[in-house]
Amino acid sequence: MSLSRITALIVVLHAGASAPAVGEPPGLPPVAVVVGIDSPIRDLSPDELREVYMRRRRVWPDGRRVVPVNLPADDPLRSSFSARVLGRRPRELVGYWNRLYFEGIRPPLVLRTPAAICAYLASEPGGVGYMPSDQVDESSCRVVLTLNDTGP
After folding, report:
1. CATH number for the domain that contains residue 127
2. C-alpha angle 42/121/33, rounded to 5°?
3. In this model, does residue 8 exceed pLDDT 80?
4. Which residues form the domain of 47?
5. pTM for the full model?
6. Distance between CA 80 and CA 89 in Å, rounded?
7. What DSSP letter does each residue of the chain carry, written as one string?
8. CA-closest candidate to residue 51, choices 86, 7, 90
9. Does residue 17 fall inside a structural domain?
10. For residue 9, is it within any domain?
């Protein structure tokens, strides 16, 4: 392969690496990571959030059970959240969850809508979820982290 073809291939590969993921709609709003209004959790780092959603961290510092909540696997925001926080799309995590299931560890709870997530978090002090930042019900949820297209 000639040097010019290698250079062209590198340019194409680099352009693809910085392009939006296939199947991800452009212009998704920032993602708000939320807890219930009465939750003792005040903030979360992206690393802590990854540990929670991969179920490696299952207890909060106050001893409460961690209850992560996902949107459905086919929701574009879940795909974006998974890529940003977990480094993988939902379909790429199927094998991971199958392995953990046999160890007695279940994947995060799935609720259909941001409204359902807010309602659930209002009654579950150990819960944490995510939704478009413009859909947070501030009477039941509190934002602890905002993820933008370029990261937190």
Report:
1. 3.40.190.10
2. 50
3. no
4. 29-147
5. 0.80
6. 8
7. --HHHHHHHHHHHHHHHHSPPTTPPTTPPPEEEEEETT-S-----HHHHHHHHTTS--B-TTSPBPEEEE--TT-HHHHHHIIIIISS-GGGGHHHHHHHHTTT-PPPEE-SSHHHHHHHHHH-TTEEEEEEGGG--TTTEEEEEEEBTTB-
8. 86
9. no
10. no
User: Mean of the pLDDT values across residues 57-80?
Assistant: 96
Provide the number of structural domains found in the chain.
1
Contact, 53 vs 68, CB < 8 A? yes
Length of the chain: 152
105-114 core/surface letters (b: 16 or more CB in 10 A; e: else): eebbeebeeb
Rounded distance between C-alpha atoms, residue 131 and residue 78, angstroms: 9
For 103, other C-beta atoms within 10 Å of its C-beta total 7
- Average pLDDT of span 37-57: 96
Structure-derived torsion over alpha carbons of residues 120, 124, 127, 130, reported in degrees to the nearest 10? 20
Q: Which residue is listed with tokens 């001893």? A: 63
Tokens in use for 9?
């291939």
